[in-house]
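User: I'll paste a sequence; please echo it back and then give the predicted structure.

Assistant: Echoing your sequence first, then the prediction.
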Amino acid sequence: MTQTERRTYLLQTLLDEDPQYRDLKIPAGEAEQKKLLRALMNVRPPYPIGEDFLTVQDEYLREEIARKGVTDIRDLTPVEPGIYLWQGDITTLKCGAIANAANSGMTGCYVPCHGCIDNAIHTYAGVQLRLACAEIMNGQGCPEPAGRAKLTPAFNLPCGHVLHTVGPIITGDVTPRHRELLAACYRSCLELAQQSGIGSVAFCCISTGEFHFPNGEAAEIAVDTVRRYRKDTEVIFNVFKDLDLEIYRGLLG
């Protein structure tokens, strides 16, 4: 199958799967097809799908990521021992784990083609990621509180795992409690990574997008928390900053 044939197959399967979409026509243009495919994957609830679909989806997503270009942590230079600063698309990083700035539902962003990192990670990981997150949350039986972390496979992403963490939501002034919770997000991810034998973690800018934590202060908390964790545990982690999506831009400026 070519990428066009794979994409057409995936689109038709998802359209046929839900009665409300069965009358929709697959657009002719490649860009429009990709947008529709992402939207259908974004809104799809976390329930199983056939192995034939998964096989084609996995081939399609891995080819799409390869075309974007994969960055290997071994090719990067640290800004200080154990800490790296990198600007790019976190879904193209080959490392031990990437951190996902999740919401309390923990099953991804359901807004079609939304610009948040949660949406991007779930899109390029594939529909398996939402199902894996739903299984965790069904066992938990309640929303995920801020400051903790959960670990899943990365499925079609080039990284090994995804660390899901919910950051604090800022609706007014940043409080000491907000700062504590944001630091807890980074610390929880590092602790879970260490417990799981994961040697490198790529962090996005947690809470700085839709959750409105100021970029500069959030960056200081992120770096300080990682430095403290490395000092306390004497374990070196490779930490990256992903600023690819529009809502994360401005951290360096």
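The beta strands are 71-72, 93-94, 97-102, 149-153, 161-166, 200-204, 238-242. The chain has seven helices and seven strands.
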